[in-house]
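All the exercises in this workshop are built on plain-text protein records. A learned vocabulary of local backbone shapes supplies the integers on the structure line. Once this layout is familiar, the rest of the handout is easier to follow. An example says more than a description, so a record of this kind follows:
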Amino acid sequence: MVIKMDNFNIDDFKIENGFEIKEEQKPVIPEKKPSGSKKALKTVILVVSIVVVSLAIAFGAIYAGADYLGIGFGRGGNCSVEIEKGSPSAVIADRLGETGAVKIPLLFRVYSKIKGYDSQYKYGVYNFDSELGYEGIANMLMTEGAEAESVTVTVVEGFTVDDIANLLEKKKVCEKTDFYDALQNGNFEYDFIRNIPVNSVHYRFEGYLFPDTYNFYNYDSKECAYLAVDKMLSTMDKKLKEAKIDINGMKIGKKDYSLHEILSLASIIELESNDSKDEMANVAAVFINRLESENFKTLGSSPTRKYPYGSGRYNTYECEGLPVGPLCSPGIFSVKAAVSPTKNFDYFYFVTDKKMNFYYKKTLEEHNSIIAKLKAENNWIYED
């Protein structure tokens, strides 16, 4: 049979011959629609998010407005703020924030910049009512800047609290009684002083008043005593952070030591090294060796016999381990030596001669031998 292809129509062919050729069809996947519960959950989450953000913005606006006006949020007290000469507005704002005069230092900086006040603030000491508000604070900083008289005072490494008290009174910064009152009873906001065992130590801040050269105000004894203590504590806080000393304690050798113990050890290093900075790490290693050795029940540091004035609580010939607190204000080199003693320095004794040469020995016999030699040469530092 011959099939003519002229004018051939496939549809006619299928009908005439009684069958269909079905074209292949792709399966149709029905579109999934989110269930009602999921749509509701998304709606709830969106609404809650909008509410939370709105409340946060509203609270922030209220808090900022209250700070600007000086109302609410724990206000109602007085704040004493010291503004040093040459302080930029950023530093002034931070100081106001630290003492509670303002709650949002950055906002006060922006306010000062917008108003053109930031270059007009004067240095001095100010007593703010915390409800004064930004405008009142700015006016005081511009118009009542007490160009308070100040005096330069150098607190030497190894000074005790009593040394500092005598020095401040001599320099007419404050009376000793006011200094001791600020030292023992003043309220200071520094994290590193929170764990001082105040019921055990002789003075609360012995060892915590950083030795340095300061400009202290001397216009009012009681207030200037507080400011002097605060400035020395602030400097200690700064120096500890710069030296990366963890205020929560550090591991030295095989043991963990608190900051209070570190400063106690540093004060001994300060007194034993006689300001020989090159020897401080070696001296530190000797005392760490003794603290870790089972052969030494006591630390045996001579300067501890004298503090505080024969009471015995600090005497490391009688008490085990470190004394109950620092004996003086150690410098930063002593503090660094305490946390980083010389490694693999396996000596347990040392002594110095009159020229401050150090002699390190491993045994008591060797130690006594060098002492006898120095005495025979009239080069022994102590008098019998």
User: Anything to note?
Assistant: The first helix runs from residue 10 to 16.
